[in-house]
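Design request, tokens follow.
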């Protein structure tokens, strides 16, 4: 599994900064973002309040197919996609809607 080249959380409150670092790490891991994130910096100042997250993404090394994102079932009349990885779901929906129309997806 990839790791982030650079990951920093700056906060005016050290305890809060550590908590946000744990939250961000959990979100990155849960959403499988390590393969697309290269660098991430987060700044938090609760007194303002302000939360800023800036990241640099990696290039995706290959073409993504529907079977990378979902289990595909065909019952003779319709195709069912069981989405397993939501990383590219918005892009997939746009393509499907454009090709088949929203009423068919």
């Amino acid at each position: 599994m990839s790791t982030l080249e650079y990951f920093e959380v700056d906060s005016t409150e050290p305890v809060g900064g550590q908590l946000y670092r744990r939250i961000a790490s959990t979100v990155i891991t849960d959403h499988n973002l390590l393969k697309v994130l290269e660098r991430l910096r987060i700044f938090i100042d609760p007194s303002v309040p302000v939360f800023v997250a800036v990241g640099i993404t990696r290039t995706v090394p290959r073409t993504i197919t529907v079977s990378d994102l979902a289990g595909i079932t065909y019952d003779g009349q319709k195709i069912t996609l069981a989405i397993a990885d939501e990383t590219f779901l918005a892009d997939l929906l746009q393509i499907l809607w454009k090709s088949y129309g929203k009423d068919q997806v």
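Comment from the thread starter after seeing the answer: thanks! The chain has a mean pLDDT of 85.
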